[in-house]
Amino acid sequence: MNRILALFLAVIPCILLASEESPYAGQELRQVKSLSEREIASLLRGDGMGFAKLAELNHFPGPKHVLEIADQLSLSPEQLSETRSLYEEMRRNAVALGRELLLAESRLDQAFQDKSISSESLESALLEISEIRARLRYVHLEAHLRQKKLLRPEQIQRYDEVRGYHGGARAHDH
After folding, report:
1. Given 48, 53, 54, 77, which residue has the most CB atoms within 10 angstroms?
2. Which positions ≥6 away from 11 have C-beta within 8 Å?
3. pLDDT band per the 50, 70, 90 thresholds, residue 19
């Protein structure tokens, strides 16, 4: 009886593991399999997608969020105008690069679908994708650099407070 129980207990986990779906189940139907619909929409809108998180969390405000809380920051008319221009330039460049990235990912996806992919073409496609991603990240990070120069230290401190960041003593050196 103990052998039967031991065999049963050994087989149950195997059955359970075999019946679990892959975390990718359903994703084979995606337009571009490496990107979710949400990621695609974000790329086409020029959203940050976390590309500038390190700037944001190191007291370099982003123009989009500065505009969202402009009243709380008491921006001057000049600061508001320059921030709007900065945001529009960043968004325009990010949208263009987002489209580029989407096309590059689509080409890679298509090469796998067509089974025309080789080690060489894979490497080339990945290098192209990483270069576009780096340029896209640069657009977002550079906008944060420029935005910081438009604000006074007390506005940056207020920005961090409103955004819920509680940095250390050297948080707001300008």
Report:
1. 48
2. none
3. low
79-138 pLDDT, tens digit each: 999 999 999 999 999 999 999 999 999 999 999 999 999 999 999 999 999 999 999 999
**In a 3-state reduction of DSSP, which class is residue 36?**
coil
* CA separation for the pair 69, 159 (Å, rounded): 8
Measure CA of the first residue to CA of the last residue in the chain; give whole Å. 75
Whole-number Cα distances in Å, 16 to 9, 13, 67, 154: 11, 5, 51, 57
Of 2 and 144, which is predicted with more confidence? Answer: 144
Domains within the chain, CATH numbers bracketed: 35-163 (1.20.120)
Residue 130 to residue 107: CA distance in whole angstroms: 14
Contact assessment for residue 174 and residue 153, using Cβ atoms and an 8 Å cutoff = yes
- Looking at residue 32, its amino acid is V
CA-based nearest residue to 140, from 94, 84, 85: 94
